[in-house]
Design goal:
- With 76 residues, this protein is of the alpha+beta class.
- The chain contains 4 helices and 3 strands.
- It has one domain.
- 39% of the residues lie in helices and 16% in strands.
- This is DNA-binding protein.
Length: 76
């Protein structure tokens, strides 16, 4: 029997829900996440972004490691 594959790619809305889970006030809004995606080439997030037509997907573990500072570049 084949094991189900785990999907680690999330939409911007789903990623915002994951990041803000349990918070009284949102830590990162969808607007902020969209800004990070727009500037992904400059800030180092681009390896964790996939674009399928108009749909933008973010790799959950990749984004969380980027957010913690691993692989993140500061804007010049």
């Amino acid at each position: 029997m084949d094991q189900p594959t785990v999907n680690h790619w999330r939409s911007i809305g789903a990623m915002a829900e994951i990041v803000n889970a349990g918070a009284k006030k949102p830590t990162l809004s969808e607007h902020a996440l969209r800004h990070y995606v727009r500037t992904a080439e400059q800030n180092g997030l681009s390896p964790h972004i996939r674009r399928l037509g108009r749909k933008i997907l973010i790799h959950e573990q990749g984004f969380l490691s980027w957010l913690s500072g691993e692989g993140r570049r500061e804007a010049a």
